[in-house]
Amino acid sequence: MTYIIAEPCVDVKDGACVDVCPVDCIYTKDEDNQYYIHPEECIDCAACEPVCPVNAIFAEDDTPQEWNKFIDINYDYFGVSK
Question: Which of 27, 28, 56, 81 meets the CB 3.0–4.6 Å disulfide criterion with 9?
């Protein structure tokens, strides 16, 4: 299982999650409108989840139904299949 960054992060890009990630698996580019967690690099430590100021980070299995599309968005960003 990996962690997913969902809709509340869009256009926010606070970066607190990046600062606490022990394996540096959270990415973005200047032109992106949010952060993304690499599903193959994430070690499921959950360090990012409590520091997110907009509550946008969820364990994949706990992603709210309304933001399930962000599971695919996060995987697709890295060209990784589920």
Answer: 56
In a domain, 82, yes or no: no
Does a structural domain hold residue 62?
yes
Angstrom distance (rounded) from CA 69 to CA 51? 23
The tens digit of pLDDT for each residue in 69-82 reads 999 999 999 999 88
Q: What is the DSSP letter of 41?
A: T
Residue at 56 is within a domain: yes
Residue 40 maps to a domain: yes
C-alpha–C-alpha distance, residues 65 and 25, integer Å: 24
The CA distances from residue 11 to 6, 7, 32, 48, in Å, are: 11, 9, 9, 18
